[in-house]
Amino acid sequence: MFSYTREQSTYDLNDFEVGGQPGVNPTLMVGTLFYEDQFEDPRKEQGRAAELIREQEKLSQETTIPTLVDIFIYEKKEIEWKIDFALENLEGIFSLDMPESEVRIEVLNHLEEIGALDKVVFNSLNLGATEEEIDKLKENTPKGAILLAYNPQNNNTQGRVDIIKEGGALMEEGLLPLAREAGIEYPLLDTAATPFGEKACESLRAIPVFKNEFGLPVGCSFHNTVESWKWLDEYESKEKVFRTLDTSIDNLPVLLGADFIYYGPIENSDLALPNMAMVNKLMAEGSEDYFGAEISEDHPHKTL
Amino acid sequence: MSELYPWPGNYKIGNSDSPVAVVTLSDDFDFDPKKIAIWGPMKTENLGIEKVIANVLSNPNIRFVVICGEEIRGHRSGQTLMALIENGLEDNGRIKGSKGAVPYIENLSAEAVDRFRKQVDFVDLLGVTSKEEVEETVKRCIEENPGRFGEPYTAVKIEMKEETSFEADFALHSSLKISPWGEISSMEEK
Predict the structure, then answer these.
(1) CA 20 to 30 Å from A35, out of A68, A131, A228, B74?
(2) Which structural domain, as residue segments, surrounds residue A119?
(3) Measured distance CA(A11)–CA(A13) in Å, rounded
(4) Residue A24: which CATH number?
(5) Which of A100, A198, A233 sits opposite B99 (nearest CB)?
(6) pTM of the predicted model, to two decimals?
C-alpha cells in the first residue's frame, strides 16, 4: 500500500468523488458502448445498448463502485443519434470516445449547439489533435477530458510525462497546459496502455509518477494491452479466459493508485465491477488501518 | 545474411521472390502463398505501419503493397499508409495527409522511411473484401514487376533508454522515492 506526499485533487462527477489518495475513494469504472463490432447494426440495436447501461447501473448500485458510460463515435454521421441516445439514457456526465480529430471537432460543435458541453468527458485530447481542434476546444469547452499520454517518440514513463507536461518533442505545448488554457475543469490523465513489447509496463509505472508529478486523477485503459496480445488471440481456450484477463489486469494500476479505469466492453460490467469492489475493499482496509485514512460510508469497504 | 521479416507481427509468409505484399487491414484472407511474399492485417496507424515498413524493407523483391480489406475505423490505418507512401513525413514524424488518430512514425529512421517510399508503390483496394479481386490485382503487379530494389535493408528500431538500476534506493521510477512506510514522494524532497 502506498500514499502520496503530494496533495491529490478530487473531482465531483455525478455525485461521486474521483481521485485522491489510494484506497480512499472507490475507483471510477467506465464501460464502453458502441465499440467496433459490438452490434451488427448499432442504430437498430439501441434497445440492447440501453439494457447494457441498465445492467452496469444495477451492478454499480450493488457494489457501490461508481461508473460512467463511454460512447464510441467513429464517423460524423453517427454524432447526432449517438449523443441523443446518451442524453436520453444517461443521467449526468458521460464520456465520448472519438478517435478522429475531424469527428471530435464536429462533436464539439454539436454539443455547443444543443447546450450539452457540461455533460461530457472528451475522450481524448491527444497528440493527434490538430490546431483546428485545439482552437475549437478553447471555444466549445467540455466539462472534462481524458488527456492521453501516448508518446510514440518516447513511450517510456518520462516520455509520457513529457506529453502531458510540455509536449515532448512532438507538440509545442503539453496536453495539461492546453486543457487548462481551454478551461477544461476536469482533466483526467490517462497513462496510455501500449501492447506487450511496446513498453506495456510503462503504462503501469507511469501511474505513481503521474500521481506524484501532477496530483490529479490518473487512470488508464489497460484492457487494451490484453486485447492486443497476439498469443491470447490464438490461444485455444481464449473464450474461457478472455473476460477474466481483460478485467483482472485493471487490478494492477489500481493497486498503485489509479483513480479511474476504462475497463472496455460494457458487457463485462458483471465481472469488472465485483472485481474492482474486491480490490477497493482491500485497499481501503489497508489505507484505514495503516495510514488512518477516513473511508466514506458508501465505499465498498463499508457497504459490502 | 540479413534476416527476412525481422519485426514480429500477425502476418503470413509466402513466396519471398514475389514482388507483392498485401495489407489486409481488418480482414483475413487465405491467399495462395506462391503469389504473395507476405500478407496480414494492420490495425494501427503508427506501430502497425512501422512493422510493415521494417518487414517490407527486409525483402527488396517486394515492389508493391496492395492495401485492401475494410478500413480500421478511427485509426484509418489504410488511408494513413497510402498517405505515407505518397507524401512522407513532417519534421516531427507525423504522416502528412493522414486522417488517422495518432499518425506518427517514431521508431524508424527517416532514411528507412525514405527507402520504403522509393522501394514500393501502393495499390489502393481500400474497402475491397473480394479475394478474387485482390488476387487479380496481385497478378497484374507480378506482370509489372520492375525487379529487385538492391540489397535487403535492415531497419533498426529506435528506442529511448532511461537510466535505471536495481542498486538505487527506488523501485518504481527514478523520479520517485518510496519511504519504508509506503509514502511516495519526489526524489529531491527531504
Answers:
(1) A131
(2) 10-298
(3) 6
(4) 3.20.20.20
(5) A100
(6) 0.91
